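Need tokens for this chain, all 285 residues.
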Amino acid sequence: MRLIKYLGHTGASCIGQLDGDLVVPLDLSNSPFRTLADILDADDPEQTARALLDPSRETPATDIGLLPPIDRQEVWAAGVTYQRSQAARMEESAAAASCYDRVYSSPRPELFFKATPHRVAGPGQPLRIRADATWNVPEPEITLVLNSRLQLVGFTVGNDMSSRDIEGENPLYLPQAKIYNACCGLGPCITLVGAMPAAAETHVRLIIRRAGEVAFAGTTSAAKMARSFEDLIQWLGRDNSFPHGVFLLTGTGVIPGRDFTLQPGDWVAISIDGIGTLSNPIVQG
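Here are the structure tokens for all 285 residues:
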């Protein structure tokens, strides 16, 4: 089951099931649930959502505008979980190379805060590159959707935008390289756990288009991750709580080389098996 947030005809935020080319709205009017996060926090999110479906109001998916599938949750991210990411981070900074090399094999993962909801862009909404950065890349990531009890309830596509020159100058600049307005993309939907393929069979594809032409393309698989989803979740929950739930980006295995940087007007499309494609235009400043 794939759940979405979208803009209704009245201008209000709505919740629906994405079923092929159709959207089946959820009727929350006589329920205790008010948000998508409320449904994800239910004991059985899929059963709860199915009980709220209103097939009489289904509409073509082309008639609605998708919103990022986030309410009040925090967004966190994991780094250096793929060997490609380890190599890329070591390329960024010779001074910090040993840090990235050690964290790849360390029992403790790299986890960092990524975004608040107002810094998140949904499908078709602009993602931003910093005006004070010269080397900017998207980072396509399988994103875990966790409820307030840190239970894995779903998956979405994440784009962990990164200013590599800022991070490479000094690892202590990581928050500035990662956290700023429109620094994170999420969407197009949340696929509940029962509808996802096995992690080893889940592929991540990145295509960047510039002036209509493919400027970069790459693919990877969750099978290449050095850490399991369960391992990342248990570390995130150590001495930490998320009363509204949390999104956890799980690291990237597709990173353009040193000769590539995003430019305003580029389009970034990230596709993940079982979820769909998140596509965003790039702006600056």
